[in-house]
């Protein structure tokens, strides 16, 4: 098992270097530079522009800038924002809990609904239940997130007035962040109604962000279950006189979970990408919105650092998925 | 009273091109302590008729029979729940591919213990002890250690021994063995057959041996049913069948044994007989 983990960790090193090159070079491919954007509509003399570029170290050769950046990364220094001057890591740590809270709620919703829906569709193959679930999954998968978010806001917030439009909690409540997770902090604050308010702000963004992973998980679960239900060991389980719930829920599902776990892991990347759109629509103060804003401001350090940290989170999740995979599938463990 | 009595069993599968009849009016009886072999080519409906008796066919199958009795109880009239109390406890089945028939995600110990948990009141310790006893019975060395192994850590022959141990866990009255040696190599085939026959004799179980191997029939069976394309062609005790087969199909089947080959060419049935000749020559 230790060798397996060390092997997986070794693969992360080239991935990490690859991501750092992409993060470093792609933002520089965009036209414009941070100094020009800082000056806004005022005209800046070429001398002043060159001086500022020099101060920020942006006039040095590309490889020198990259090596500096890589050196910083190895010592845990992700640089500082050109705009706010604050360290990228500090901003990330402050904003990440908001994204993590939203993503966790979304993945929990997607897993809790997607797996049972997929199992039910597979067991009732060809029935109206199967067709309804798969039809809904196809619609969910095909729906553009921004449009779906706007539709929900118009209907539930605008027309019915059930949920708030944007933010994390009502302005009526204020408490210092302890964990950064609004649901937990609102409970810790002891203020009456704060938790309920935090939940109401979380509902729509969670539904929007969960839609695509939910559809993918339901479809993957269905197809994995269909394959597994035809296996000999499922027939053996039935020949033992086990109840159908046990045959499906224990013998079939455990095997079907192997590809589904991989899918769930891959959906974490989709979730973080989706969080950028969802956070923008719902003005959710997480890293998605932070990254979009910094791309517009050509805040190189933030975009680079943010991408590296997001990639780090995805790599970590994939490592956990690999380990889980070994746990669920004994053929890998032994 | 027979242990298992089936009369006029018909199994039809719904397919895209209409219903397909896999079993067409098969009748059979097995008594306690008797070994019945059902022999036939692939697609003759031998496995399907037994899976129908066990209630293990998929929902696309339509099963009808004039009689489907186990120990005098009507299996067709029973609720699924009542039938599950018999399946795995009083009637057990072992299958062709032992490795694929065991769940790869659970230890073999768990898979044996599960049957005991469902069908008996034994506590955890007693179930574990019984599992060890069963492993010893089927000849698996170091049972305490082996119970913690996964199927992929065992050989095909050992997996089949685990399947047999699982099937025998609740001392069934009837064991159905669906080509139990087909996937195994020849030396292991012999060991598994010997084991099955020894256990059958010791426990006095009824045994239905589904096979396409006439050698297995000769070695194990008291009585034989020959099936072709879902129909019963002939039924006889094992000596009569080999000495004086009555139906043209059985004669052709016996003459198609590799040891009867003349020259370098193996004899086949289809080049000698048409379906019409086979069905007309059937002795039921």
From TrEMBL, chain A:
Residues 96-325 form the ABC transmembrane type-1 domain. InterPro entries: BPD_transp_1_N (IPR045621), MetI-like (IPR000515), MetI-like_sf (IPR035906). Coiled coil: none annotated. Keywords: Cell membrane, Membrane, Transmembrane, Transmembrane helix, Transport. It comes from the Bacteria. It is a multi-pass membrane protein. CDD domains: TM_PBP2. Belongs to the binding-protein-dependent transport system permease family. PANTHER family: DIPEPTIDE TRANSPORT SYSTEM PERMEASE PROTEIN DPPB-RELATED. This is ABC transporter permease subunit. It comes from Mycoplana rhizolycopersici.
TrEMBL record, chain B:
It comes from the Bacteria. It is a peripheral membrane protein. GO terms for molecular function: ATP binding. Keywords: ATP-binding, Cell membrane, Membrane, Nucleotide-binding, Transport. Residues 4-254 form the ABC transporter domain. The keyword Transcription does not apply. InterPro entries: AAA+_ATPase, ABC_Ni/Peptide_Import, ABC_transporter-like_ATP-bd, ABC_transporter-like_CS, P-loop_NTPase. It is found in: Cell inner membrane. SUPFAM superfamilies: P-loop containing nucleoside triphosphate hydrolases (SSF52540). Belongs to the ABC transporter superfamily. PANTHER family: DIPEPTIDE TRANSPORT ATP-BINDING PROTEIN DPPD, OLIGOPEPTIDE TRANSPORT ATP-BINDING PROTEIN APPD. This is ABC transporter ATP-binding protein. It comes from Mycoplana rhizolycopersici.
């Amino acid at each position: 098992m230790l060798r397996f983990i060390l092997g997986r960790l070794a693969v992360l090193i080239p991935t990490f270097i690859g991501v750092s090159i992409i993060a470093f070079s792609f933002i520089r491919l965009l036209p414009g530079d941070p100094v020009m954007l800082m000056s806004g509509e005022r005209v800046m003399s070429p001398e002043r522009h060159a001086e500022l570029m020099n101060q920020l170290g942006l006039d040095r050769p590309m490889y020198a800038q990259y090596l500096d950046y890589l050196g910083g990364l190895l010592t845990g220094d992700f640089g500082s924002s050109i705009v706010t001057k604050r360290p990228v890591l500090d901003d990330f740590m402050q904003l990440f809990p908001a994204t993590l809270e939203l993503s966790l709620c979304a993945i929990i919703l997607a897993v809790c609904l997607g797996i049972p829906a997929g199992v039910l569709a597979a067991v009732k193959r060809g029935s109206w239940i199967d067709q309804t679930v798969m039809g809904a999954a196809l619609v969910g998968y095909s729906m553009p997130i921004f449009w779906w978010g706007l539709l929900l806001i118009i209907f539930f917030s605008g027309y019915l007035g059930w949920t708030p439009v944007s933010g994390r909690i009502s302005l009526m409540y204020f408490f210092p962040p302890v964990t950064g997770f609004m649901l937990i902090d609102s409970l810790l604050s002891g203020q009456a109604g704060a938790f309920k308010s935090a939940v109401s702000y979380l509902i729509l963004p969670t539904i929007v962000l969960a839609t695509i992973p939910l559809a993918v998980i339901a479809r993957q679960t269905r197809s994995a279950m269909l394959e597994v239900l035809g296996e000999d060991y499922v027939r053996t389980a039935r020949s033992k006189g086990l109840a159908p719930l046990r045959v499906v829920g224990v013998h079939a599902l455990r095997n079907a979970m192997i590809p589904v776990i991989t899918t769930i892991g891959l959906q974490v990347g989709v979730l973080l990408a989706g969080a950028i759109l969802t956070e923008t629509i719902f003005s959710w103060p997480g890293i998605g919105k932070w990254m979009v804003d910094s791309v517009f401001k050509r805040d190189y350090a933030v975009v680079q650092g943010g991408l590296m940290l997001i990639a780090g989170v995805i790599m970590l999740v994939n490592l956990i998925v690999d380990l889980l995979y070994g746990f669920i599938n004994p053929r890998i463990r032994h | 009273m027979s242990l298992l009595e089936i009369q006029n069993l018909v199994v039809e599968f719904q397919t895209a091109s209409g219903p397909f009849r896999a079993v067409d009016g098969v009748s059979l009886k097995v008594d306690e302590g008797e070994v019945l072999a059902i022999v036939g080519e692939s697609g003759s409906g031998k496995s399907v008729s037994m899976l129908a008796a066990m209630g293990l066919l998929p929902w696309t199958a339509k099963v009808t029979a004039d009689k489907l009795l186990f120990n005098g109880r009507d299996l067709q009239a029973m609720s699924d729940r009542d039938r599950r109390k018999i399946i795995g406890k009083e009637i057990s089945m072992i299958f062709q591919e032992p490795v694929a028939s065991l769940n790869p995600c659970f230890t073999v110990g768990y898979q044996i213990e599960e049957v005991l948990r469902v069908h008996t009141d034994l506590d955890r310790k007693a179930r574990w002890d019984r599992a060890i006893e069963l492993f010893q019975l089927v000849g698996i060395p170091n049972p305490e250690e082996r119970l913690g192994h996964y199927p992929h850590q065992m050989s095909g022959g050992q997996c089949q021994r685990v399947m047999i141990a699982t099937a025998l866990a609740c001392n069934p009255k009837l064991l159905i063995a669906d080509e139990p040696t087909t996937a195994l190599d020849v030396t292991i085939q012999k060991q598994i057959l010997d084991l099955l026959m020894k256990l059958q004799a010791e426990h006095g179980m009824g045994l239905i041996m589904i096979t396409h191997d006439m050698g297995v029939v000769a070695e194990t069976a008291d009585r034989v049913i020959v099936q072709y394309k879902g129909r019963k062609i002939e039924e006889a005790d094992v000596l009569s069948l080999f000495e004086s087969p009555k139906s043209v199909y059985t004669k052709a089947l016996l003459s198609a044994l590799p040891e009867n080959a003349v020259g370098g060419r193996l004899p086949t049935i289809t080049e000698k007989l048409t379906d019409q000749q086979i069905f007309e020559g059937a002795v039921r």
